[in-house]
Design a protein that fits this description.
The protein has 384 residues and is mainly alpha-helical. It is built from twelve helices and no strands. The protein starts with a helix and ends with a helix. The radius of gyration is 64 Å and the shape is rod-shaped. Helix 5 packs antiparallel against helix 7.
Length: 384
């Protein structure tokens, strides 16, 4: 409405001079206002289009700046993720190196432990002294207390069982046993034999050595003497035919003086064989020779003599010794040691394989999720 009023007023002002002059420019004045409005509208439209284009350009510049900033942030995030991945790999490498060093340290401890056990075992075989072997096992126990692994504790329990078995057995000391055998060999020549202590037989009466003074004078006395002599001869002959022997114990061995030297040399050789078998740890020969030597001494030597009793007691103690190398066994310790070494080096992986196979799909899904998160999302404004 206001536009129409202003237009009518303008037409009146335009028509007033034309009417006074008497000319007719009425047609021209009617065309000019419409053109102005057209140019005005065109200018406004161009101005609006320009402003819109300017705003669009600035908006695109803003989007480009934001896209650049986003790309910069994505690059920094990618660099940070790469750095974190490098640090994770470095951490894994360090942990792996620590585990490797720990394994090598434990393996070195096990190697030293095995060397100590072998040294103690060789000392036991050479000397028969179990003290070095016991000390080696106790030292191994002390070393294993610092290892928290299950295999180390199993090895420590196996060592405990072997220690109890060694201490419960009566094993010999080779040095002391050899000294005892040498002491018995030194007393062989001093052993009294049974015939050395026998009471000598009384001298036999010889009826033929009758003095002339005891010869009877009468015939009856002579007959009585002759008959008594005949009876004595008959009794002597009968007593030689009858043998009286005790059956509750063995007959004492009697040898001639010429055989005494052979008996002593035989005993000496038997004891030397026993000594050699003891050093070689031949239990069968050792027991056989000692048993034979004891039998000879018991049969031919005087049992009531103190030296004979001492030698028999020494031989009895020597025969009671167990010189078999298999009497002491470290099988439990060696098996546990092998199992501990295999567990450390990774040779035994049968229990770990199913668990690792079950965890593989979960680990792959986690890895894919991390890769998807680390991939930058493209910007739509930047692409436009």
């Amino acid at each position: 409405m206001s536009d129409a009023q202003t237009q009518s007023e303008q037409t009146k002002q335009d028509t007033s001079p034309t009417d006074s002059s008497g000319k007719s420019p009425v047609r021209r004045s009617r065309k000019i206002p419409g053109g102005r409005w057209l140019w005005t509208i065109l200018m406004l439209a161009l101005l609006g289009i320009g402003i819109q284009q300017l705003m669009a350009v600035r908006f695109l510049e803003t989007l480009d700046n934001e896209a650049g900033q986003i790309a910069t942030v994505d690059g920094r995030l990618t660099a940070l993720e790469a750095m974190m991945a490098d640090q994770a790999r470095l951490r894994e490498d360090i942990q792996q190196m620590q585990q490797t060093l720990q394994q090598e340290r434990v393996l070195l401890s096990l190697e030293r432990l095995e060397q100590q056990l072998d040294a103690g075992w060789q000392t036991w075989l050479a000397t028969g002294d179990t003290s070095s072997l016991i000390m080696a096992l106790q030292s191994a126990q002390r070393r294993l207390t610092s290892l928290p692994s299950a295999s180390a504790q199993t090895l420590r329990l196996a060592i405990d069982r072997d220690l109890i078995a060694i201490k419960s057995q009566r094993v010999m000391d080779l040095r002391v046993a050899v000294q005892n055998i040498d002491a018995v060999i030194a007393t062989i020549d001093k052993l009294p034999l049974i015939q050395d202590g026998r009471v000598p037989a009384p001298p036999e009466s010889n009826p033929g050595n009758i003095s002339d003074e005891s010869v009877p004078a009468t015939l009856m006395d002579r007959i009585r003497l002759i008959s008594w002599t005949v009876v004595q001869d008959v009794w002597h002959a009968i007593s030689r035919m009858v043998r009286v022997q005790r059956l509750d114990r063995a007959e004492p061995g009697l040898i001639t003086p010429e055989q005494k030297v052979f008996l002593q040399q035989g005993l000496r050789l038997l004891l030397l064989d026993a000594r050699h078998a003891l050093i070689l740890r031949n239990a069968v020969t050792y027991q056989q020779t000692l048993e034979q030597a004891r039998g000879w001494i018991s049969k031919y030597a005087e049992p009531s003599d103190a030296l004979v009793k001492a030698d028999l007691a020494t031989l009895q103690q020597l025969a009671a010794l167990n010189i078999d190398p298999l009497a002491i066994s470290l099988e439990n310790t060696r098996q546990s040691l092998t199992a501990a070494r295999d567990a450390i080096t990774g040779n035994v992986l049968a229990d770990a394989l199913p668990e690792a196979a079950a965890n593989e799909p979960q680990a792959a899904a986690i890895k894919e999720q991390k890769e998807a998160e680390s991939t930058p999302v493209p910007n739509k404004g930047a692409t436009q």
